Amino acid sequence: MAERKVTSLDVAALAGVSQSAVSRVFTPGASVSKKMAARVRDAANELGYRPNVLARSLITGRSRIIGLVVAYLENPFYPDALERFSTVLQGEGYHILVFMTSGAGEGVDRVIEELMDYQVDGIITASVGMSDDLASRCSAAGIPVVLFNRGQADDRLAQVTSDNIRGGRRIAEFLVAGGHKRIAHVAGWQGSSTGRDRKDGFLAGLDAAGVMPVSVVEGEYSREVAAEATRALWAEHKPDAIFVGNDHMAFGVIDVLRHELGLSVPGDVSVVGYDDVPMAGWAAYDLTTLRQPSGQMVARTVEMLLERIGSPDVAARKEMIEGDLILRGSARVPEGWT
After folding, report:
1. Going edge to edge, which strands form the sheet with 95-100?
2. Beta-bridge partners for 196
């Protein structure tokens, strides 16, 4: 016969307190004296008791769980962001429930619907959008949503991104100041706001300097697609500089230039990325890149979400955080550039 499951009543009896006192001890943020908390926890440890978080959520109306939807874990920017989200949310007494998706359309909506079934307190989408219909349903259900590293024209959805247009423009100014004449762009997926904004900012910066790009191709945020685009670019245009829409693609671009085409980076071709993931600083790539301030972006995303959980009537905000251009060895540095 299976042993009877230990309950909060058993803990209360052993500790000599009420069941509500046991509940307060295991409720984050609840008021309870240190002496009582120690007595209750000692009793719980002796009996092997663990509180049923999901059952408590039915009473409090809060699961203390945040749903995180992510699509591109092969891009090292997102595992790093995921770790940051977990650390920051745990510090606030929350845990994350991670779901993977293809990144667009019905797949995203299906995953978010599943998260709603888990009674999450809020949802963060990392570089994925959601349909207007599902945004309406989340709003009606009182589940706030914050978009991380993705913009969307919907006033119900808060969002935090880097200033992608300004970052793209800054890279254009850097390459032009470095004397490059044949500049190409391997863009990110144009179905995303980040891919479009980085491209638009970059092209605006070139246009302001009176420079026309020799080619603009879509790399789809895929290392393999970006590598193939690089082969075609060199065969047709022989650029002297390439701005790549994120670091993940830029690593593929550099590998093709150096190891397949036998070119010097930056002697023959300067390469600039976007994100500043940890690998960008490795000696193998030494990548000049526009840093996405992921720590600040994660912190602001969590702040926005918790604010809206606590005050559902707070208006959704859209925030862009500016990043720095990190100079390394993959691109020629203009004289006097800071």
Report:
1. 95-100, 65-70, 122-126, 145-148, 158-162, 318-321
2. none
* Position 326 in a domain: no
pLDDT at 105 exceeding the cut of 80: no
Q: Which amino acid is at 218?
A: E
Does some domain include residue 2?
no
Distances (CA, A) of 272 to 38, 210, 223, 235, 256: 56, 20, 15, 20, 15
State how far the Cα of 176 lies from the Cα of 172, in Å rounded to an integer.
6
208 with 244, same domain: the answer is yes
pTM of the model: 0.81
Rounded percentage of the chain residues whose pLDDT exceeds 70: 92
Whole-number pLDDT of residue 163: 94
Closest by alpha carbon to 246, among 143, 171, 181? 171
User: Is there a contact between 256 and 240 (Cβ–Cβ < 8 Å)?
Assistant: no
Q: Among all chains, which residue has been given the structure tokens 């002297």?
A: 240
223 contact partners, CB below 8 Å, separation of at least 6: 74, 248, 249, 251, 252
267 falls within a domain? yes
Q: Is residue 338 assigned to a domain?
A: no
Give the structural domain span for 22. Answer: 8-51
